[in-house]
Write a structure and sequence with these properties.
Elements (H helix, E strand, L loop, with lengths): L1 H11 L1 H21 L24 H8 L14 E4 L3 H12 L4 E4 L11 E4 L2 E4 L5 E2 L6 H9 L6 E3 L3 E7 L6 E6 L2 H11 L4 H26 L2 H10 L2 H4 L2 H5 L3 H8 L3 H8 L14 H12 L2 E4 L5 H11 L4 E3 L4 E6 L5 E6 L6 E4 L3 E3 L3 H8 L2 H4 L19 E10 L11 E5 L4 H9 L3 H4 L6 E5 L8 H4 L3 E10 L17 H21 L7 E7 L1 H8 L18 H4 L11 E3 L8 H17 L3 H13 L1
Parallel strand pairs: 1-2, 1-14, 2-10, 7-16, 14-20
Antiparallel strand pairs: 3-4, 5-9, 6-9, 7-8, 11-12, 12-13, 15-18, 15-19, 16-17, 17-18
Helix pairs in contact: 4-14, 4-23, 6-7, 7-13
Length: about 625
């Protein structure tokens, strides 16, 4: 009763609402700048930006940066902070802290740094594992400014085709294909050309995307403002006046599309890149989808020299102030004292575990790993996130995936391949097709048509490829897959999981390739290399929990304000912070902004404001 009266009063008194909002913001600013320790240094400056240098192709030189193995003699006497995991979130936080004068140690369990930004070379072919295309790099956006700073201006970007994605619907051999274009107007124009009777719906969709761009920044406020203020905003409904993000997050992507049009073909095309965050349209929110599409509308690019260039140029910015990025350093435990404060980490070594102290511990390996694997339960429960996290709770692991890596004989010109991706769906009812596939047992899945395929040719996107790998091309094919199909082999060793495992994995991989060749028949007889990774592979190489590559599931529950506000860098465990894609959203940009938010909290200063000022400074 009392809340209904409050909401009625708010609706009848908009001037009061405005006054309270101003007061809340004022109090928030005071609490941020007067309630904490002295703000740290501003990490943004142009001092170290320099002219781009030639691409380093010598593998030994690259390994000296990307594959620095952990040994105790490399450790200095003391570090200001330790970061667990070298994905884009961990590297972002470490780079910004280093630029602010902190000495940071980054520990990576894999044999090379980069997380999903790394590449691997096998039998003369190089493959990316997670970076397939990045938005907002064609112009001087805030996102580009951030990564440019953290790589000293050395990371270069190459634009994909203006038609960067193709949506293929129906039987692959005779699929109906729709181009997805860069730029808001070109995007809209191409859709209207293929759906002339749906012009009104398409224009409404594009206009809605534009309005959601600003709403995203409002949502960030719930991760920056003190929790007591956010709770007040939620309880009074003022949070929905601060941003429309949470109103749109109540709506599933599918419900929004159903309200927009009755054309099922258009709905499938508008929903097409949901595989980029791994949650089907009926389960995810329109707000999450709008954020992704807006990211791509600025144009799509790829790192010149391949995805490993990202970590290769970020690591020196961490080392500049005495920090290190060390691999083959699996952290088995976050050390805590008798009062529950994080005091260091324990690195597991066959020769004997190594404890490393530090006053600040930053976890970039995901909320579930941090709270359920690295901390004692009695400490983990001190975090407000704990009760929300885990299978069956509101925050759980996202869907697993299968990744197929194919090496081809022939150049992109010989094989008639372009710098673009294809999203292939066997049915316009993408929800039904995916749900039926996910309900299958492992044995049924190997005989089923795969409902979703992301098909990419990384070799076409990098202008240095032909010089580095003449006469060769690569193809990467990805689909969503259930963890349960492979769970029985979770305790087996990689490359020794047995014939039954190889049979299931191999059968799904061959099915993926058959459907790919139906769309690209010219590559069918050009195969020189063929390998596939399962959800178990993701656990091994990326430190996942259930084979996921996008961290927490991007479902509606995650983006409700009472949960979303808790996905922030501070954990209520003194000395422990979180970074990466679980803090903001998945993907390169999402993980990077998660890292920025974490560095802001550690330094106790508004780095978003610093970044905006830095962008203006560079523009001059």
């Amino acid at each position: 009763m009392i809340f209904s009266e409050i909401f009625g009063f708010i609706a009848a008194n908009p001037a009061f609402v405005a006054a309270v909002t101003v007061l809340v913001i004022f109090v928030s600013v005071l609490s941020i700048f007067l309630g904490g320790s002295k703000p740290g240094s501003n990490p943004f400056y142009s001092k170290y930006l320099r002219k781009s240098e030639p691409l380093v192709t010598d593998l030994k030189a690259r390994d000296k940066v990307l594959k620095q193995g952990f040994v105790t003699k490399k450790l200095t006497e003391a570090y200001d902070a330790i970061v667990i995991g070298s994905g884009i979130g961990g590297l972002t936080t470490a780079s910004l802290l280093s630029s602010a004068g902190k000495k940071v140690l980054v520990l990576e369990q894999h044999d090379q740094a980069g997380g999903c930004c790394h590449t691997f070379i096998d039998k003369g072919f190089e493959f990316d594992v997670g970076i397939h295309y990045i938005g907002e790099m064609r112009s001087e956006t805030l996102t580009k400014t951030l990564i440019t700073h953290m790589t000293d201006g050395q990371l270069q970007w190459v634009d994909l085709e203006d038609c960067y994605d193709i949506v293929a619907l129906g039987d692959a051999a005779k699929a109906r294909k729709y181009p997805i274009m860069s730029g808001r107007e070109n995007f809209k124009k191409a859709l209207i050309e293929h759906f002339p009777n749906e012009q009104k719906a398409i224009e409404a969709y594009v206009q809605k995307l534009r309005s959601m761009r600003g709403a995203t920044y409002g949502a960030i406020g719930t991760k920056v403002l003190p929790k007591w203020i956010v709770k007040l905003l939620i309880a009074t409904g003022l949070v929905n006046m601060m941003t429309t993000w949470f109103t749109e997050s109540k709506i599933s992507l599918q419900d929004y599309l159903d309200s927009l049009t009755t054309n099922d073909e258009l709905k499938a095309v508008l929903a097409y890149p949901f595989g980029d965050y791994g949650t089907i349209p009926k389960e995810t929110t329109f707000a999450m989808h709008a954020m992704l599409i807006n990211h791509f509308l600025y144009g799509v690019s790829y790192p010149k020299g391949g995805a490993s260039e990202i970590a290769f140029h970020m690591i020196p910015t961490i080392e500049r102030n005495g920090g290190k990025v060390l691999v083959r350093a699996p952290v088995s435990k976050i050390l805590t004292d008798s009062e529950g404060k994080a005091t260091g980490v324990r690195v597991h070594r066959s020769s004997g575990d190594v404890d490393i102290p530090a006053p600040i511990i930053i976890s970039g390996v995901g909320v579930i790993n941090t709270l359920h694997k690295l901390l004692p339960r009695e400490v983990a429960t001190n975090s407000s996130l704990y009760k929300y996290v885990g299978q069956g709770n509101r925050l759980q692991s996202g869907m697993g995936c299968m990744s197929l890596f194919v090496g081809l004989n022939g150049t992109k010109d010989e094989l008639d391949l372009k710098a673009q991706n294809t999203w292939a769906y066997c049915d316009v009812d993408v929800n039904k097709a995916c749900e039926e596939f996910f309900k299958c047992s492992a044995q049924d899945a190997v005989n089923s048509e795969i409902p979703l395929l992301f098909i990419s040719f990384p070799s076409t996107k990098d202008p240095t490829w032909d010089e580095r790998y003449p006469g060769k091309s690569t193809c990467v094919v990805i689909t969503l897959a259930r963890w349960e199909w492979f769970e029985e082999w979770k305790d087996t060793k990689i490359n020794h999981r047995g014939e039954d495992y190889d049979s299931v994995k191999g059968a799904i991989a061959r099915r993926m390739w058959e459907q790919t060749c139906a769309l690209y028949p010219q590559v069918a007889d050009k195969v020189e290399y063929f390998d596939c990774g399962s959800p178990l592979s993701n656990n091994y190489y990326l430190g996942s929990t259930r084979g996921e590559i996008y961290g927490l599931d991007h479902n509606r529950s995650r983006f409700q304000p009472d949960v979303y506000m808790h996905l922030r860098p501070e954990t209520e465990i003194p000395g422990l912070y979180l970074t990466g894609q679980d803090i903001f959203s998945c993907g390169f940009a999402g993980g990077m902004y998660g890292g920025l938010l974490c560095a802001s909290k550690v330094l106790n200063r508004n780095l978003m404001d610093d970044l905006l000022k830095y962008k203006k400074q560079l523009a001059k």
